[in-house]
Specification:
This protein is mainly alpha-helical and about 180 residues long. The protein has helices spanning about 1-10, 15-30, 35-50, 70-85, 85-90, 95-100, 110-125, 145-175, and strands spanning about 15, 50-55, 65-70, 130, 135. Strand 2 (about 50-55) and strand 3 (about 65-70) form a beta hairpin. Helix 1 (about 1-10) runs parallel beside helix 6 (about 95-100) and helix 7 runs antiparallel to helix 8. The longest helix is centred in the C-terminal third of the chain and has 30 residues, at about 145-175. It is globular and about 60 Å long.
């Protein structure tokens, strides 16, 4: 998710490391905060792989700032990650939100719809936070008030997400290709 976020935000515009960290933090920081110890090694790996470019410019105070940008190789990697998200990027809500954040960069509506269909298929698979003899426990069967609450909230958000996914897939399938969503630079 971290590398996807780095590539995705830099597909929109070049950024300084601090600006990039703040955008990633805004996307998922309250759930999965990004540390310097994770971010800067990931940036270094992406630079070494030729996916990011960097140049130094004068800073606001005395220290120079490093500006990062996406290379053609990085853009190709981003598009591949968006076309074929890992199973955990479909099943994990926070990771799927990261995919959704950048899905507009995929220029083909059919590919966008295919990713949304994968999420919809995942949501249609019976599941629960709790199981009884291998069977998912429903909210009405929960052992206590708090587990019931978890399950009811999950059911409601799942229903809302299914509705949106179905609408989005329909819009993508009937839209004029000239009406393609904004894809950024």
């Amino acid at each position: 998710m971290l590398e996807l976020s780095i590539l995705g935000f830099l597909a929109e515009e070049p950024l300084h490391g601090y600006e990039l960290k703040e955008r990633i933090k805004a996307l998922s920081g309250h759930v999965r905060p990004v540390s310097d110890g994770a971010l800067y090694p990931a940036i270094t790996r992406l630079i070494k792989a030729g996916k990011l470019g960097e140049h130094t410019e004068p800073g606001a105070s005395a220290a120079p700032r490093r500006t990062l940008s996406l290379t053609d190789t990085g853009r190709a990697d981003l598009l591949e990650r968006l076309r074929h998200p890992k199973p955990v990027e479909i099943s994990d809500q926070v990771r799927f939100n990261a995919v959704l954040t950048f899905l507009r960069h995929l220029p083909d509506r059919r590919e966008q719809a295919a990713v949304l269909r994968r999420r919809l298929e995942f949501l249609d698979t019976p599941t629960s936070f709790f199981y009884d003899e291998g069977r998912p426990v429903r909210a009405e069967e929960a052992a206590d008030l708090f587990r019931e609450g978890m399950l009811r909230v999950a059911r409601a958000t799942g229903a809302a997400e299914r509705t949106w996914l179905e609408e989005a897939i329909e819009r993508l399938s009937r839209a004029d290709p000239a009406d393609s969503p904004a894809t950024g630079p």
